[in-house]
Design brief:
Layout (H helix, E strand, L loop, with lengths): L3 H17 L3 E3 L8 H5 L5 E5 L5 H9 L4 E6 L2 H13 L5 E5 L14 E7 L17 H10 E11 L2 H12 L4 E7 L2 H4 L11 H8 L5 E7 L1
Parallel strand pairs: 1-4, 2-3, 2-5, 3-4, 5-6
Antiparallel strand pairs: 6-8, 7-8
Bound molecules: S-adenosylmethionine (SAM).
S-adenosylmethionine (SAM) binds next to strand 3 and helix 8.
Length: about 220
């Protein structure tokens, strides 16, 4: 029978496997910060932040071998599953960093990232939790620093309240230029568009009939 102790042991095992994987990077991994040796220096750099098991990045990397992908999450056990799937699919242009988004400047150069994807971030609905929302000003400062001029931030979410809060927050900023806004990606985009690649959370919400909201913007 599967119990809580087994669950914890399995997470510790996956944490250790992630830290020993050739695709896993982060403070505790054998590879530390050497992700560039694996991905090289050529090709647009795409980050998926709060990637979970990174189903979205995996499919993006498969579709776009000319781009370099980094999937980031604080949770090593989820990242380990992404690493395994990437190895099994023989995908060469995707690596994983275990880090808090707010610490990403330790791993990446300023003005080096072309695209940021925020895929179904935790909504943190309480006012007291607002500082954890991935589009709060402290997170926006990180994206603005890491992105090349004209680089794009993309957000996909099921959460209407988070989406409207984000729209309001971004609209109040003078340095933000919206590129695209949709309250239902399935009615706004064509089959084959990258934005329609489903994440694990997205599949769950779609099955419940909840639409995916999407926006993209750049900093001026
Ligand atoms: C709701 S899950 C979405 C996972 C995946 N993107 C999907 O759509 O299936 C949000 C993820 O964000 C990660 N996360 C939350 N805050 C983070 C932070 N500050 N830095 C890095 N990852 C974070 C969590 O660990 C979790 O895996």
């Amino acid at each position: 029978m599967y119990n809580r102790t087994m669950g914890r042991q399995s997470k510790i095992l996956q944490y250790n496997l992630f830290n020993n994987s050739s695709l896993g990077f982060g403070r505790h991994s054998v590879n530390e910060f050497r992700w560039q040796e694996r991905l090289g220096r050529k090709g647009p750099l795409v980050l998926e932040l709060g990637c979970g098991k990174a189903e979205f990045s995996l499919e993006m990397a498969r579709r776009h071998p000319e781009k370099r992908f980094i999937a980031v999450d604080v949770k090593a056990d989820r990242l380990h599953k992404g690493c395994k799937a990437t190895e099994n699919a023989s995908i060469k242009n995707l690596v994983f960093i275990q880090a808090n988004i707010l610490d990403l400047a330790e791993y990446l150069q300023p003005a080096s990232v072309d695209f940021v994807w925020l895929t179904f971030p935790d909504p943190y609905p309480k006012k007291s939790q607002a500082k954890h929302r991935m589009l709060n000003y402290n997170f926006l400062d990180v994206y603005k620093t890491l992105l090349v001029y004209g680089g794009t931030v993309n957000l996909k979410t099921d959460n209407q309240v988070l989406f409207e809060w984000t729209l309001e927050l971004l609209s109040a900023r003078k340095d933000v230029r919206f590129k695209s806004i949709s309250f239902d990606t399935e009615t706004s985009f064509l089959n084959g568009d990258d934005v329609l690649i489903p994440t694990a959370f997205e599949q769950k919400y779609r099955a419940l009939g909840v639409s995916t909201k999407y926006l993209s913007f750049s900093f001026e």
